[in-house]
Design goal:
The chain has 122 residues and is mainly β. It has no helices and seven strands. Strand 6 and strand 7 form a beta hairpin.
Length: 122
């Protein structure tokens, strides 16, 4: 699902008050359906990671104003592979710390794959 130029990657850092471009490579053997992203805090160290490498975690803390984003990235019909790009704005006033960046890819038949990455908002 992700290649070398994809972003973010496991343990990537993004900055409050700035935007970044999520670049997600997706493919399916028949036809792609949809891609969605979910960014939420990991201040309690729960896990969705699908990665082998662990990231350095901050201490467990209570969220005050965490970032939450659930968004679908439109895909054109009829493709078996696609590079989905989405600009994501990180508000300047969200809690910094450990977050999850989940990617859900669903094909036209309804099968779904999830890629769970750990990122840090600085």
């Amino acid at each position: 699902m992700l290649t070398n130029s994809a972003f973010p990657k496991q343990c990537s850092e993004v900055l409050r008050g700035q935007a970044f471009v999520a670049k997600i490579y997706v493919s399916d053997n028949k036809e792609l359906g949809s891609v969605s992203i979910d960014i939420h805090h990991n201040f309690d160290h729960h896990s969705h990671s699908t990665e082998v490498a662990a990231c350095n975690m901050e201490v467990i803390k209570t969220p005050v104003k965490p970032m939450v984003l659930i968004q679908t990235i439109p895909l054109p019909g009829g493709h078996t592979s696609y590079v989905a790009e989405q600009t994501i704005n990180i508000p300047a006033d969200v809690d910094p710390g450990d977050y999850h960046f989940l990617i859900r890819v669903t094909d036209k038949e309804g099968w779904q794959t999830i890629k769970g990455l750990s990122i840090k908002i600085k």
